[in-house]
Design goal:
The structure is a single chain. By secondary structure, the chain is of the alpha/beta class. It folds into two domains: 80 residues, Fe-S cluster assembly (FSCA) (GMP Synthetase, Chain A, domain 3); 47 residues, no CATH class. 24% of the residues lie in helices and 25% in strands. The chain is built from four helices and seven strands. The strands form two sheets. It has a four-stranded mixed β-sheet. A hairpin with a 7-residue loop joins strand 5 and strand 6. The structure holds zinc ion. The site of zinc ion has 8 residues, from loops. Zinc ion (ZN) binds next to loops.
Length: 147
């Protein structure tokens, strides 16, 4: 059975990719509750990603707002996170918002699905994304880096 605490935590959005929840991102490992204390285990994404502090803060805030007074967020490094852990729902949400989900090789344009794309920059608005341009529809787009 999915607990209220789990639902609250699972709905927290990734601060760098706000179209996707931390559950769909594959960052959320577990939520356990004992005697009113909630323990959340998360796995960091890209090493040194500053978003992890924001995610931790957002989890604590969400739980506190929903009446959970005692909250602990623990980081687990094993198993290591990879972009394979992004769920199919998460990939669909990314593509729908114009961000190419991580793939091996060059991404397809999220606007027109063309494979005629060119990388403009290894870094986009965040370090975990790269910037591309589509030759077919001339639109630029971000792609989540594969890890
Ligand atoms: Zn295109």
């Amino acid at each position: 059975m999915v607990s209220v605490a789990y639902e609250v935590v699972a709905a927290v959005k990734d601060p760098e990719l706000p179209v996707i929840t931390i559950a769909d991102l594959g960052v959320l490992r577990s939520v356990s509750e004992k005697d009113g204390h909630v323990r959340v285990v998360i796995t960091p994404t890209y090493s040194g990603c500053p978003a992890m502090d924001a995610i931790r803060f957002d989890i604590e805030t969400a739980l506190t707002r929903n009446g959970f007074g005692s909250v602990e967020v623990v980081t687990s490094l094993s198993p290591a996170w990879s972009t394979d852990m992004i769920t199919s729902a998460g990939r669909a949400a990314l593509a729908k918002s114009g961000i190419a989900p991580p793939v091996a090789g060059s991404p397809a344009c999220p606007h027109c699905a063309s494979s005629k794309v060119l990388q403009i920059s290894r870094y986009a608005s965040t370090a975990c994304q790269s910037l591309w341009k589509c030759h077919s529809c001339a639109e630029p787009f971000n792609a989540v880096k594969t890890l």
